Amino acid sequence: MALNEFINSYVGPMAGAFLGRVLTRKQAFRLADFIAAKLAAQEDSALYQAVRSNLAVVKGVPYSSSELDGGVGRVLQNAAHGYVDWYRMMAAGLDGLESVCEIDESLIHSALEAQSNGHGVVFVGGHISSFNLFLLLLAKKGFPVQVLSYAQSEEHHRSDSILRERFGINATPISMESLRQAYHRLSNHGFVVTAVDRPDVGGSQLTFFDRKVELPIGHARLAIRSGAHMIVGVVRQVADGTYKVTGPPIIKPEITGNIKRDTLTLAQRVAGIIEGFIRSDPEDWMMFLPVWPDVIPRKNSGISGSPSI
Question: Span 107-111, mean pLDDT?
Fold first, then answer.
């Protein structure tokens, strides 16, 4: 089993939680750096090629550019550090969460204000830094959220939902039933969370880094149909080794009566916001699927991979 497969396996998070109890944060980071370096050395792997091709598009350089050398390693190191802090929270519980990650209080205030005015709120984010900490912060703040996660037909994705449920987070793989639940929740002024930057063959063509990509639009459709407002929140690493959830002001979708057009307009607006955050720090984007597989040299085509969440 490859190292990245073990990290995302059913037992990987359990092992991580155990290590979170017995290792200091500094010791755990050293182990994480070792794992990241091993993964980054596997240049023929699907994981390496996916990350490098994504960086190539974000930075606007060819796949073979020397500007990308070392970039995959930094992405994987950042991701590994995020896993360390996620595992440590699983081991220690939420009491120490806010010493590691804080949230812009204006996001909390605007969400509660929208709810008091009769609107649900869709929180959307990207695979930037440690998105899992964003979910835990919402739980810590007392938000009864429903998380729409990617369909979990593969064994190694189940562990994330199991662990999130330990913290009272309602994690539901995307299906017709979970989408109905999300619509009902939003219609009753509730909260839904999902990530929106993974390529989705069931999505729609949006412009992302000046290229057309099929990205999810379900979050936008839910907001338009339910009258919910939307908050784009991303987790950023800050200089002192902690994290902060930040984002632009709450979005009040424009509703013209043309549901299809309004949905695409909102989804494109969100994609543009996520793109801006990724551009500001490309090596903090933890996307392990090739968003633009045509960028990978043809001899390496046909690869696939799995994101962490």
Answer: 95
Q: CB–CB of 289/48 below 8 Å?
A: no
Residue 57 backbone phi and psi in degrees, to 5: -70, -45
Number of domains in the chain: 1
User: Which residue range forms the structural domain that includes residue 169?
Assistant: 3-300
Q: Is 307 among the domain residues?
A: no
Instruction: Report d(CA 184, CA 190) in Å as an integer.
Output: 8
Q: Is the pTM of this model over 0.85?
A: yes
Q: Note whether residue 308 is domain-resident.
A: no
